[in-house]
Design goal:
The chain is an alpha/beta fold. It has helices spanning about 10-25, 30-50, 55-60, 70-75, 120-125, 130-145, 165-170, 170-185, 200-205, 225-230, 240-245, 250-255, 275-290, 295-310, 315-320; strands spanning about 80-85, 95-105, 105-115, 150-160, 190-200, 210-215, 220, 260-265. The chain has two domains: about 5-50; about 60-320, Alpha-Beta Complex (2-enoyl-CoA Hydratase, Chain A, domain 1). About 45% of the residues lie in helices and about 15% in strands. Helix 1 runs antiparallel to helix 2 and helix 3 packs across helix 11.
């Protein structure tokens, strides 16, 4: 019942509060039917709201401050996880973390974006927006996986790469482009999952892989809805319209062939039951590893190349499966 709520979740919070108060009432045992009625109403309301989310509401859930981040999944999925720090050129970027761990006893490389839980940690993590040294650290880890024949697991959760002057001076665009080129020919299996925000080049800098999964309420886009609204209409308040037009939801991207799999979330988002979603993520990764185990590396790289060559090409049938953009100027 506790926790951050968006406006569209307020009716649920109010009903949860009524149910909580009813359970605390001294005469609750005399009226069990009232509790059952409230519980049924709450479940019905949740299904009504969360089954009909707009693209903008899904963006909001992707940004929920209680949503699990990369290090949370490392603790839920891995044993013997050891972080690797620094790019051996400039410094360690805390917005992009990674290391070596074991998934069901199998060694693997894991990396991804990391946000903070409070203002202090968010400042330390730069709100999940990586610097060039973060992408260089990521490539260092991926090459480690290639050297020791370890699969690479990547979790994307960023509003975008950091656009500051220092980052540009240190080669932000070059770092992202270089990573994409090197990942395209990395001689080991690469699994990618968008666990929250998938913003622009900041996501693509670690987003080239053999399989791209995406959580149900995550988003993956060339630009944030606010940035798109500011460019098109010079009004960031029109972000909900931009979110609908960008086709950034998991179902839209699955229909267009941009992602390969959508991982279902519990009603209300991943933060409602992180352990359950972690098990679904584990199952997805294990299916991928079973698919790629034993595949010749040359065939794996060719398959990866062809996969990205097809990106952007879609049939009329795929387009019809995507929801229409909003009308208006």
């Amino acid at each position: 019942m506790n926790g951050y709520r968006y406006d569209f979740e307020k009716p649920i919070a109010e009903l949860e509060h009524r149910l909580h108060e009813a359970r605390k009432a001294p005469d609750r045992d005399k009226h069990p039917e009232s509790l059952k009625t409230l519980e049924a109403q709450l479940e019905q309301l949740k299904r009504k709201i969360y089954s009909n989310l707009t693209p903008w509401q899904r963006v909001q859930l992707a940004r929920h401050p209680q949503r699990p981040y990369t290090l949370d999944y490392c603790s839920l999925l891995l044993s013997d996880f050891t972080q690797v720090h620094g790019d051996r050129l400039f410094s360690d970027d805390r917005a992009l973390v990674g290391g070596i761990g074991k998934l069901d006893g199998r060694p693997c490389i894991v990396l991804g974006h990391q946000k903070g839980r409070d203002t202090k940690e968010n400042l330390m993590r730069n709100f999940g927006s990586a610097h060039p040294e973060g992408y260089r650290k990521a490539l260092r880890l991926m090459r480690l996986g290639e050297k020791f024949h370890l699969p690479v697991l990547i979790f994307i959760d960023t509003p975008g790469a950091y656009p500051g002057i220092g980052a540009e001076e240190r080669g932000q665009a070059h770092s992202i482009a270089y990573n994409m080129r090197e990942m395209a020919r990395l001689r080991t299996a690469i699994y990618v999952c968008v666990i929250g925000e998938g913003g622009s080049g900041g996501a693509l800098g670690i987003g080239v892989g053999d399989w791209t999964a995406m959580f149900e309420n995550a988003y993956y886009s060339v630009i944030s809805p606010e940035g798109c609204a500011a460019i098109l209409w010079r009004d960031r308040a029109r972000a909900p319209e931009a979110a609908a037009a960008l086709k950034l939801t998991s179902n839209d991207l699955l229909a267009l062939g941009i992602v390969d799999e959508v991982i279902e979330e519990p009603l209300g988002g991943v933060h409602r039951d992180p352990e359950m979603v972690a098990q679904r993520l584990r199952a997805s990764i294990l299916r991928f590893l079973k698919l790629t185990d034993g595949m010749p590396l040359d065939a794996l790289i060719e398959r990866r190349y062809e996969r990205f060559r097809r990106t952007g090409a879609c049939s009329a049938q795929q387009l019809s499966a995507v929801s229409p953009p909003p009308s208006g100027p």
